[in-house]
Design a protein that fits this description.
Elements lengths: L1 H27 L28 H37 L3
């Protein structure tokens, strides 16, 4: 009888330990993905507001220049964001 109780006790302890080690290994293999850097996720600025008046050639060129500069900055930031995710996902999948 004592041998049977010992076997049951050992089986209970072993099954409890096995369950804990499986849970621990699942938690140990959990993937935590890094967020994209905040400077890459900013919203692109809207085009400049045009004044409610006739524009001189200098006004048009100044406003157009500001819009073009913002567009280039936004395009570069978008490209950097795409490269960030491609690099991260490539490292995860091993296709880097």
């Amino acid at each position: 009888m004592l041998a049977l109780l010992s076997c049951v006790l050992v089986a209970m302890l072993l099954s409890g330990c096995a369950g804990k080690s499986v849970v621990a290994s699942v938690e140990a293999n959990r993937i935590e993905l890094a967020p994209a850097p905040i400077e890459l996720t900013r919203v692109c600025p809207a085009p400049v507001d045009l004044p409610d008046r006739g524009l001189s050639q200098a006004d048009v060129e100044r406003l157009w220049s500001r819009d073009r500069a913002s567009l280039v900055t936004c395009r570069n930031r978008h490209g950097a964001l795409v490269r960030f995710y491609q690099d991260r996902d490539g490292r995860i999948t091993g296709r880097r």
